[in-house]
Amino acid sequence: VVLTGSNDCLWKTWGFPDGTVFQMGKGHRDVLSGCCFQPSGTRLVTSSRDTTVRIWELSRSECILILRGHSRHVQGCCWHSPWDLVASASMDCTSKIWDVSSERCQHTLRGHKKSVNSVEFLPFSNTVLTSSADKTWSLWDIRTVSRL
């Protein structure tokens, strides 16, 4: 299965290699900039230029949570394994760590001078990697919210 997001504000899951669309979700009001499966495969996270991050229940193709807090386009998102955390990267020069269980922003990572273009958790760690239009990347310890 392949997961995509696009300019039509939809996410889709596709069969590979035949290209059959299995599922589709609609809810964002602007371009989808990122999407990622939860490690267990039962949910997904999407990010959009509409400044939101959304959590979707795959079994129903339904948005179950909208995370708001970025002031500009959200460029990307990822899911932490094994914790129920999501990270987002934004043009507002920040990344956020969201606790899905409590439905709240746990940490805001500040330090880049321009748009944060991507974010990724290092597997099975407390470390997140961000990259920015300021031509830098940073490693962050999400327990202390400090750069490594």
From TrEMBL:
GO terms for cellular component: axonemal central apparatus. Pfam families: WD40. GO terms for biological process: axoneme assembly. WD repeats lie at residues 25-66, 67-108, 109-148. InterPro entries: WD-F-box_domain-protein, WD40/YVTN_repeat-like_dom_sf, WD40_PAC1, WD40_repeat_CS, WD40_repeat_dom_sf, WD40_rpt. Gene3D superfamilies: YVTN repeat-like/Quinoprotein amine dehydrogenase. The keyword Repeat applies. The keyword Repeat applies. Keywords: Repeat, WD repeat. PANTHER family: SPERM-ASSOCIATED ANTIGEN 16 PROTEIN, WD40 REPEAT PF20. This is SPG16 protein. The gene is Spag16.
